[in-house]
Amino acid sequence: MELYNKTATELAKMLRQKQCSAAELATSVFDRIEATEGRVGAYITLQKEAAFKKAAEVDAKLAAGEILSPLAGIPVAIKDNICTKGVETTCASKILRGFVPPYDAAVIERLKADDYILTGKVNLDEFAMGGSCENSALQKTANPHDLSRVPGGSSGGSAAAVAAGEAILALGSDTGGSIRQPSAFCGLIGLKPTYGSVSRYGVVAFASSLDQIGPIGRSVEDVAMLYSAIAGKDNRDATSVELKQKDFTNGINDGIKGLRIGVPKEYFGDGVDECVKTAVYSALEELKKEGAVIKDISLASTDYAISAYYVISSAEASSNLARFDGVKYGYRAKNYENLTDMYERTRSEGFGTEVKRRIMLGTFVLSSGYYDAYYKRAKRLQQRIMGEFDTAFNDCDVIITPTTPTGSYKIGERVDNILQMYAGDMCTVTVNIAGLPALSIPCGKDKNGMPIGMQLIGQKFAEPVLFKTARFYEKLHGGLFDAPKL
Amino acid sequence: MKIDIMHIAKLARLKITEDEAAKFEGQMQDIIGMVETMPELTSDYTDVDSSRPMELRQDIIMPSVKREELLACAPAVQAGCVVVPNTLE
């Protein structure tokens, strides 16, 4: 097997046993990028020169017998809404084209301390608003399993890069499903961590009460490894907390004997494809045979979650995106009459349609006379959804649902149907609304041969339970990554 | 429900054309139609969750990004300041 298709865990071992060097690994990944990127379109910015320089440094450290992090020398792609010092960070928006951050996001500082290798910055729906990467103002990204289909979104570039062999691991961000959905569409494992477990310092804010940064990879251990590297308290994100566990690869092989799995009927309704339901049910059957206890549960407010999500996230986005005014950084309109005109022209020329739509929706629900009717109503519903999860977790340790109602669809197929596009988030948004951790893992293929994702939801800070459950299922199948033929 | 898109756009500091306004209005009506299905709950709601107080960091001086590095990001700079159009006649 080519180096670019291996897991980070295997490669970390190989680097230490001198079976390959960091330079050889970087060569394998960048050769692969050269061969496939023209068809995949995952990267907005590549960092080849810096990557090889870093690889040489890692090789020198290994040769000198230094004890390094398991991430040392591992090529990682970073979603282009995470600030990287000296490397353009666009959010796939015209308004930030050319913006070179003067600082690193907290997660990047941590990865640098671990000697990771940045392959480049990858595509997303503009400002992470969307589920297909079609809202990127800069380029389209294709699903490596079928180039005529979307990779999902908003972290579509992250997932496409890892699936295609153009990176070993990737970071994404997840506000309503943006890590889990593209991981499901591209046959990968993706974690949306508990709200507060990873610092968002340096991620361009979309909806601050929902945003989280998380890992995407090809194996559960890889994802646990990258999560270990980025999790923990950072004073610059007041929501972040100290975690007791530091290495989340510990305990992932503990097994699932007696594990209580809740299955909420609301996630298996009419909007979900039959083949998706069948795949998830059959995975549940397998886990039951291996000693898990399956319990039917109800999360009654699920049907309203998308509404609450779009109200809350758009309200916060309208406020967060007010900072893009053409004054301090990013794009400024060329012609304007006065300050207000400059703001308006800059924003109108700089933002794409979906971003404008969400800013206006947010402005509307927060405007005089509508705040109580929409925003407050959504916040009350959020509390009810949290309460329903709390009650459910009295009877179970993990909740399993489909990650998405369907597999990946054709590029262009849904762009004109906004509500259908938004409905694609039906299984994922509740997790952000309740601040819980959730992991998507592959559990079969749909009628088009595209990967299907199964979502494991845990209580706050119960990432270890998700990892050991996913790892057990992965072992049953002898691995879950099925490299696409590109 | 009638949504005054031009007014909303003005509040959001966006300039949109009449054609765009018509399209956005239809889409916003669809979205609001969906949102209207949310149940009316009467539970107590407060913006601040008192069970999870936010821990604020100490107000102490520490190194930060340099002024010139920040100014290098601005579209127009003069004499160490960001340039904007006149705000006073």
How does this structure look, described?
The complex is a heterodimer of chains A (486) and B (89). Chain A has 486 residues and is of the alpha/beta class. Chain A has helices at 8-16, 22-40, 48-63, 106-113, 156-164, 180-185, 220-230, 274-289, 305-320, 339-350, 353-366, 371-392, 418-423, 429-434, 463-476; strands at 43-46, 75-79, 117-122, 169-174, 189-192, 212-217, 260-264, 293-297, 398-402, 438-445, 451-457. In chain A, helix 4 (106-113) links the parallel strand 2 and strand 3 (117-122). In chain A, helix 2 (22-40) packs antiparallel against helix 3 (48-63) and helix 9 packs across helix 12. Chain A is globular and about 65 Å long. In chain B, 34% of the residues lie in helices and 4% in strands. Chain B contains 3 helices and 2 strands; from the N terminus they run αααββ. In chain B, strands 1-2 form a two-stranded antiparallel ribbon. Chains A and B meet through helix 9, helix 10, helix 11, helix 12 and helix 13 of A and helix 1 and helix 2 of B.
Short description:
The complex is a heterodimer of chains A (486) and B (89). In chain A, 38% of the residues lie in helices and 13% in strands. Chain A has 486 residues and is an alpha/beta fold.
Number of helices of chain A: 15
Unreliable stretches of chain A (pLDDT < 50, length at least 5) are none
> What percent strand of chain B?
under 5%
Largest sheet of chain A: 11 strands, mixed
Task: Tally the beta strands of chain B.
Answer: 2
Please summarize the sheet with the most strands of chain B: 2 strands, antiparallel
Distance N terminus to C terminus of chain A? 15 Å
